[in-house]
Specification:
Length: about 160
Amino acid sequence: MTRRAAAAPALAPGDEPAAPFWKTKRLGEMTDAEWESLCDGCGRCCLLKFHDPASGRYDFTDVACKLLDTESCRCKRYARRKTIVKDCIKLTPRNVRRLRWIPPTCAYRLVAESRDLYWWHPLVSGDPATVHEAGISVRGRVVSERDVPEDAAQDRIVTWPAERP
């Protein structure tokens, strides 16, 4: 069976489609809903990381925060995450430019750098599953910190979260 794409609504002569909010607004100008929708649900920011202050380098592990649902790649207790996980860092328009560990695929980082979102981002694709289908999310690649002894996380360093596709 062949499927045809739905026809786009006709524009009046001289009209152009409105640009998406992430192309027209600065991070600090976004509504809460717009800000939250920038998260693609990849889960990369929820991986345990080690920081070497001497080099400034961050190393990601394949160990996810205990609150991350490793299947959906969403926080199980998002509204209360800061009270449950004391070192959880809430991304804000102010800190997103300073945090050097934010993955290069992260929409918050891309917008802060005046770059466009990738094709698989749900705001572009219209489908929250594309982040998983494109292999960007942590689904199937990580374990929960609940299942790893605390001193073993340092042996689980991986490079893929800091790489671009």
